[in-house]
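Q&A FORM
Asked by: J.P.
Topic: structure of Peptidase M22 glycoprotease

PROVIDED:
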Amino acid sequence: MKYLSIDSSSRRLLLLGVNEDKTMGVTLHNVGRHGTYLAPAVKDLLEYLQMSVKELDFIGCGIGPGSLTGLRVGISTVKGLAYPFDIPVISFCSLDLLAYNNYLSSAVVMRRGREGYYYWRKYRFEGYKPVPVEEPGFDSVDKLKSGILTKNEVLIFENEQEKEQFEGYDSLIALPPSPEIMKQIIVKAFEAGETIDVRELKPYYLQKSVAELNWERKHGKST
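REPLIED BY: S.T.
REPLY: Here is the structure written out as tokens.
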């Protein structure tokens, strides 16, 4: 099996390429401009694995939620690769990458969005493997505390700073997302027949962009 996968939902850019029994995973940290790094990294990965795009059985793509700019770059790249050759796509929630390898009964993955707001998704666990129990959400800290979160759930954060507004809740820091975790997610989905046409690929845009918010403020719209 030959495939490629990308997650560009945060400042940590994940790439994975597999050519039968040869695998290459790449993690780029603190990426500020995904568009600068992603295309050259994909090119180098394919060359290293000695395979061409048209040979791919499928392409995996993290669809967020997360960085709006990063997601646009990643999804545009996948569309550019898949569309000419009609390659099927596996889309996956990027928060799932943070939920793996935690031996819990239930948990909520938390990722900071704009100031005072968090992306979140709830999971139950089968061993160390997370099973989502609902679609991702995007809510204010106050709303999360007033009804969405419970004290029976462990909150999973990406870093210590994100925990500061949730004192009194059980919490832990997620293991860094990795190409290996991404591989587990997309291979399981591919084997289950969960591919989509690349034309159906779209991100989880749960929060509005800064440009949209500024336009609404200027024109007196509610945010």
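FOLLOW-UP: The longest strand covers residues 117-126.
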